[in-house]
């Protein structure tokens, strides 16, 4: 049975979410404060987290950031904050989805099931191994630094490989160009270094995407950065 953690300070909303999820055979825990929700998320094993943003003690943004530092568990923000900047910030901190209040309970459960299924494709069925990563038609052999697309080996430069491996091992998170440059090239991004990241992202798409003009994996999040979808 899948375990879900609801971090929500409104007891009426939390109970409605819980009852509906229980009716669909999920196991559910609840936390009414941000700090308590964070503690539960880090100390217990959950398959998915539903997270409000306006929480006492610690807001949902900080909770999301700190959970994401320790885990790739799916995080679905459920909030009445509807401004685009709120959504961008949530995705930038690693949220997998953003659901506006008021919401339909059927839609909530559908999104929960979709994200659980997507996450399982990566880690729940033996696809994520220490020395080999598999994702749909992509296979990465970490020890030999070889990449196969639809079982055909595709050559990668050292930095292209490093960028691909970083994105694949941090799925569904949005990274700014500055962050990617610092992580992959090992220095602060300045000036035209943005172009370096852009060029390498373009090269990745040419090598792993079925249609680079309509990328399935490496998605541009306009005004923020890039996200690797699973």
TrEMBL record:
Molecular-function GO terms, alphabetical: phosphorelay response regulator activity; transcription cis-regulatory region binding
Localization in the cell: Cytoplasm
Start and end residues of each OmpR/PhoB-type domain: 130-230
Domain Response regulatory: 3-116
Protein known as: DNA-binding response regulator, OmpR family, contains REC and winged-helix (WHTH) domain
This protein's UniProt keywords: DNA-binding, Phosphoprotein, Transcription, Transcription regulation, Two-component regulatory system
Segments crossing the lipid bilayer: none
PROSITE patterns in alphabetical order: OMPR_PHOB, RESPONSE_REGULATORY
Organism from which the protein derives: Paenibacillus catalpae
4-aspartylphosphate: residues bearing it: 52
